[in-house]
Amino acid sequence: MSVAFRRESDEEHKEPRFELPIPPGPNLVTRRGLALTEAKVAELEAALAAAPEAEREDVARTLRYWRTRKATAQLAPDPAGDEAAFGTRVFFRHDAKVRTVEIVGDDEAEPAEGRIAFSAPLARALIGVAPGERARFGGRDDAIEVLSVDPLEPLI
C-alpha cells in the first residue's frame, strides 16, 4: 500500500504549537507586577493539576511562559526624582486632552486601564521628561506636555 493512504495517527497531522513569545529586552517589573506574575504561576499550576488531558498541553505551554517570566523578573529600582520613569504615574497633556498613564513592565501592561509597557512608544517618549517639559511624540517636537509625575508604589 502506498504511504499516501497510510495514516498512523491524528497527532502527526496537527499543526505545530510554538512557545508563547517572550518580549525582547529585560523583564523589568514593579512590586505589583512581580506579585501578579507569582499569582499567575500558582493559578496555572493548580489549573494544570485539574485540567483534562485534552487541555493539559495548552495549560502547560502557558505555564512555561509564566515560569520563565517569574525566573527572569527584575524588580525595578524605585524611580528617582520627579521625571517620568519606569514605575511612575504620569499626568500629561496631548492634543489638548489631559491623560494619565502608569509606566510598568510588559506583562503588567493594560493600555485600556492606563498601564503601558515601558517599551511602548508613548512610554519611551515620556521617560526622562520632568513636569513642565515637553516631549517629542508622533513626529512633533512638542506634542506632549508633562504636568506631573508620581511614583506608583510608596518609596521604602
Automatic annotation (TrEMBL):
The keyword Cell membrane does not apply. Keywords: Elongation factor, Protein biosynthesis. Residues 82-149 form the Transcription elongation factor GreA/GreB C-terminal domain. SUPFAM superfamilies: FKBP-like. Residues 1-18 have a biased composition (Basic and acidic residues). This is Transcription elongation factor, GreA/GreB family. GO terms for biological process: regulation of DNA-templated transcription elongation. Residues 1-24 are annotated as: Disordered. It comes from the Bacteria. The keyword Ligase does not apply. It holds the Pfam family GreA_GreB. One of its GO terms (molecular function) is DNA binding. InterPro entries: GreA/GreB_C_sf (IPR036953), Tscrpt_elong_fac_GreA/B_C (IPR001437).
